[in-house]
Amino acid sequence: MDGEYVDLVIIGAGLSGVGMACHLAKECPGKTYVILEGRDTMGGTWDLFRYPGIRSDSDMFTFGYSFKPWISSQNLADGPSIRNYIREAAQEYGVGAKIRYNANVDSIAWDSASATWTVTYTDKTAGEARQVRCSFINGCTGYYNYEHGYEPEFKGSESFSGTIIHPQKWPENLDYKGKRVVIIGSGATAVTIGPEMSHDAAHVTILQRSPTYMATIPEEDKVTTFLRKYIPEMWVYRIARTLRVGIQALFFKLSRSYPDMIKGLLLKGVRSAVGPEVDMKHFTPRYNPWDERLCAVKGGDLFDAVKAGRLSVVTDHIDQFTPTGIKLQSGEELPADIIVTATGLELKFFGGIGITIDGEPYNFTQKMCYKAVMLEDLPNLAFTFGYTNASWTLKADITSEWICRVLKHMDETGRKSVVPVNKDSSVHHGDFLDFQSGYIKRGMDRFPKMGNKPPWKLKQLYPYDMMMLRLSKLEDGVLQFNKAGGAKVS
Question: Is 335 exposed, middle or buried (CB count within 10 Å of its CB: 0-12, 13-18, 19+)?
């Protein structure tokens, strides 16, 4: 109904949005809310992507919600299992009834006089514009464009006689049995699709411009399987989660402090897995570990496919597409019936939604993020952005907890608005993410800035963030709580 009011609007019904709603039901049960979802179902990324072998690239003991144990034996879960997990959480906390599907948010407008947001969205089913007012917004829109991925132009692509597919738009029931497949890319998507397709394809070639660090992750966790026989499921989950968080943080720290040592360990593992006959130039990156995200190889499936001859990895640059494949700059031609362009995502912050404050446009690309959960000079709005070096949900969970803390604090103190304001002239702007992946570097100009020191600095470190968001005081001199609509934004 147009003009209705709720306490909170959550934008997006993916892993983060559903998780936020569950936290809200647990910690702020009196709050009213709606979730506006642009697609026709929940699940976000895990419903959108349907390519062969789609799975998490983080272990499920950290990728799962903090409040809902992952009880499957899968260490790296497949897409359908993750979708079911999200739906189960939604059902357990009564979230489903709060979701409005085919509701594409177009713009949000803050009014300081009433301390409310007006959210304008298109009801795609009815073909009408609608509005809902609220006091707080949580943007759970992810970080990429749901409409299409990054698709660079390849010379001669129109002449190719076969099928060209981007993983984000995978066709249903694609028949690749007995076909020659070339996958362009070296990231998690290529590493996932390649081994899966190699079981039925005539041959699969992963064509990369440069190699990526890879490591085998066991398909099942035998320790947790053993512990489940003796202690309650939630205890097992918390033990496994704590151990993995510690190991991940330690590995990331060691990678930054002793890159040559970690590089040697990773390459030694790959050499052992693929065998002595494979040229390691295809698995030896030019950068240091964790300058880009480490690719998890489920049960060593990619290495097994290489060893068995079902899959090849080629490092070269594309000269052009031909009617029968891809010609490389080296002069070699890769024959193909199907070309998969696993060339990455197109980044988009906050779903590209227009923001105004008291009628004036708000440009978040010129503002800093506060604790990576709010934006400078923007009242009563938080966003959820997970980790690039660990499980997305670790950050999503503690972001949701922090938002609930803020909402309860506002109720207890009679405040109507909260806004981060920088008064420190020594704070300097930098990129939102310090990460070297191509798709990240391409899109950083569309994101907010990061400061050079707390609370404006993003550390990408879960133990630090957990302490900062769970235990640090809310009234810190930067986060301003107001009895009215908030500070006037210049």
Answer: middle
Query: Which amino acid, residue 367?
Result: K
* Residue 79 in tokens: 């897409």
Scored b (16 or more CB within 10 A) or e, 106-121 reads: eebbbebeebbbbbbb
451, 457 Cβ separation under 8 angstroms: yes
Tokens (6 digits) for 255: 């990678």
Amino acid at residue number 326: I
pLDDT at 489: 40
Crossing angle between the packed helical segments 259-274 and 301-308, to the nearest 10 degrees: 50
Within 8 A by CB and 6+ apart from 228, the residues are 236
Given a cut of 60, is residue 488 above it in pLDDT? Answer: no
Phi, psi of 118 (to 5 degrees): -110, 120
pLDDT digits (tens, 9 = 90+) for 446-484: 889 999 999 999 887 888 899 999 999 999 999 999 987
CA distance linking residue 93 with residue 91, whole number of Å: 5
Nearest to 8 by CA among 357, 403, 307, 329: 403
Query: Quick one: 277 exposed, middle or buried, by C-beta within 10 A (0-12, 13-18, 19+)?
Result: exposed
Beta bridge partners of 122: 104, 129
Rounded distance, CA 248 to CA 462, Å?
Answer: 9
Query: Exposed/middle/buried for 13, CB within 10 Å: 0-12, 13-18, 19+?
Result: buried
Question: What domains appear along the chain, each with residue ranges and CATH number?
Answer: 4-146+346-482 (3.50.50.60), 157-341 (3.50.50.60)
pTM attached to this predicted model: 0.92
Radius of gyration, alpha carbons of the chain: 23
Query: Beta partners for 15?
Result: none
The residues with which 5 forms a beta bridge, in sequence order, are 133
Place of tokens 């909170």: 8
CB-based contacts of 114-117 (< 8 A; 24+ apart in sequence): 114/485, 115/379, 115/380, 115/416, 115/417, 115/484, 115/485, 115/486, 116/5, 117/9, 117/380, 117/381
Q: Alpha-carbon distance 426 to 117, whole Å?
A: 32
Judge whether 302 and 144 are in contact, CB under 8 Å. Answer: no
